[in-house]
Amino acid sequence: MQTSNLEATRQSKLGMVLRVTSGNFLEQFDFFLFGFYATQIAAVFFPASNEFASLMMTFAVFGAGFLMRPLGAVILGAYIDDVGRRKGLIVTLAIMASGTVLIVLVPGYASIGLWAPALVLLGRLLQGFSAGAEMGGVSVYLAEMATPGRRGFYASWQSASQQVAIVAAAAIGYALNQLIPPQDLAQWGWRIPFAIGCVIIPFIFLLRRRLEETAEFAQRTQRVTMRQVMRGLANNAGTVIAGGLMVALTTTAFYLITVYAPTFGKSVLKLSTGDA
Questions:
Q1: CA dist 261 to 96, 235, 246, 276, Å?
Q2: Where are the transmembrane segments (predicted)?
Q3: What is the pLDDT of residues 231-242, one digit of tens each?
Q4: 11-224 under CATH 2.40.10.120, yes or no
């Protein structure tokens, strides 16, 4: 009897891990795709006489999403602390999904002019804003639902889901490169992976809606207010800055490998998308 109860608990925990990390998977999936297809996006939304200038404008929009992360972490993080992990993570998913759908549906510069890059920028800002709270919110949820003595193991699934997303995005990109001619890939084929992300959004919403609130949060008698959050940031400014710089270091190295290297291979070394 005790063995069956233990097995049921393990299956329940596994289901919770899959449901909460599904949104984190989508967030990293979309972030990676935007960088991976930077050269195609540059040609569609940021045409310029100089290819380098076009690419730099694309990466500026890509970087704008990262600038929104701290803001999203503070605002949406405080919201998650106030209303609960489950409700808060559903909101972050909704914002992220809005940005993803917007990028997929926006016509190119040739069709609507400056509205095209402006709407793509808006989509990236929405994605970055939600990502700021998505990663932290998922990590907190995993830590709070963990069995005693295994918080580190459970919280590590936040990062693991991101790596799975990158592998999935790269595999889809490689498959498309083999199936679609380069000129078609540059015009419309790059939208297919984003569209795949849009297709799975309803399923991720369904998974998130089935999340249960963590017992640790439900047992709290006091809620953290935005004023308390800001006071905590101010009182620990040195630690916050040091932590931010450490994250910036690892993030820079990560995106140099996963985003810049493929773009460099395509634009400078003239490699195919698959080879890059």
A1: 26, 39, 22, 8
A2: 29-46, 52-76, 88-112, 118-142, 154-176, 188-207, 233-257
A3: 888 898 889 889
A4: no
Tokens linked to 261? 């290297």
* Sign for the pseudo-dihedral over CA of 149, 223, 86, 94: negative
Q: What is the C-alpha to C-alpha distance for residues 276 and 268, in angstroms, rounded to an integer?
A: 11
**Could you say which residues of the chain have pLDDT below 50?**
1-8
How many Å apart are CA 166 and CA 172, to the nearest integer? Answer: 10
At 185, list the tokens: 């890939």
Q: How many CB atoms lie within 10 A of CB 227?
A: 9
pTM for the model? 0.85
- Residue 181: helix, strand or coil by DSSP? coil
Which residue has tokens 């995106």?
Answer: 255
What distance in Å separates the CA atoms of residue 118 and residue 55, rounded to the nearest whole number? 16
Asked if residue 51 lies in contact with residue 267, where contact means CB atoms within 8 angstroms, the answer is yes
Cα pseudo-dihedral 102, 112, 181, 59, rounded to 10: -60
CA 16 and chain centroid, separation: 19
